[in-house]
Structures are given as structure tokens and as C-alpha cells.
Amino acid sequence: MGMCLYPYLPNRMAVHWNVNGEPNEFMSKQVVVAFIPCFIIFSYGFLYIISHNIFKFNEREHCIIGGFIKKMTLFMLFIHMLILLINFGDFIFFQTGLTIGISMFLFMLSKEFKKIKGKEKDPIKLQKIRLVSRRIFQVMACGILFSLFLNLEWGFYILLSVISCGSMLFMFYIFYSYIIESYET
């Protein structure tokens, strides 16, 4: 898509926007159209090689890591396409597109926890972590979607708050379930 839009894009493309929606960092269109997709492909390949050759995972763990790598790659491609479309025509704020993208990423991540089928021999703790993690990511995604209804500045603060609180809740739950529950038994 970048090559199709290339002749119609400005020579200096915005790649970063203020909270107000005004661009404040620019790059040449060659970097945005050619270098960023190459970087995304390189990072996908690098993570794939690391997960298959350096860490010796079993097949189930490869499925988990591969799903996460695919979700990250899709998110980066979404951001790249968002930058191209904003520079092609000013019809959406970057923050609005980014908010939608983050929410989609969190919903896809929660679905990834659902796809991981636990075996009967999996510990109860691991099954509970999967269930709670899925719910945490779904609540984060809904909270981030709620921030779309606010003005840009308040939406930005809600976005940061939801991501921060959700991440801390996720880490504290894992800490609780592995360390404190293990200590109690």
C-alpha cells in the first residue's frame, strides 16, 4: 500500500503528533515508506529466529510465542498504515487511531490466552493466571475504547492510566499467584 500511495505523499511526513493533534516530528517519505516496513519484517524474523533456535521451547510454547510475535507485528503494521493514511489525507487524529489500535491489540492478546488450551495436567495456578490475564486485557481494551469518547487530552490521560494500572494489576496477580500462593501451601 505504501508504494501505491508513494507519489501522492508529501516529501516530509509527520511521524509524531502532540496531544493537540498537531505534528511535531517529520521524516522523509523514503524512510517512512521503505525503512519502517523493512524494520518490521527484520524484527519479526529476528524474534522468530530467537524463539526457534536460541530458546528450546516445546511445540505448545512455540505456539504461544509465535502468536504473540504475530500480534506485535500486526500492531506495528497497523501503526505504519495509520501514519501513511494520516499523511495521505488529514481525516483522523493519530491519537484516535492509536487508541483503536491499542484496544484491538489487547483484544487480540486476550483471545490468544483463550486459544491456549490447557491440559488436564496443567496446574490450577496456570489455568487461573490464563483466565485472569484474559479478563485483565479485555477490561483494559474496553477502558481504552471508553477514552475515545473524551476529548483528546483527557482521553490521553485515561489511556495512560488504563495501560499503567492494567499492567501493574497483571504483574501483581502473577506475583501473587506464584509467590504468595506457593508460600501459603
UniProtKB/TrEMBL annotation:
Which terms are listed as keywords in the entry? Answer: Membrane, Transmembrane, Transmembrane helix
Q: Which InterPro entries match?
A: DUF1648
Keyword Transmembrane among UniProt keywords = yes
* Residue ranges of the TM segments: 31-51, 63-86, 92-110, 131-150, 156-179
Q: Which residues form the DUF1648 domain?
A: 2-40
Task: Name any one Pfam family assigned in the record.
Answer: DUF1648
UniProt-recorded name of the protein:
DUF1648 domain-containing protein
- Organism equals Bacillus thuringiensis
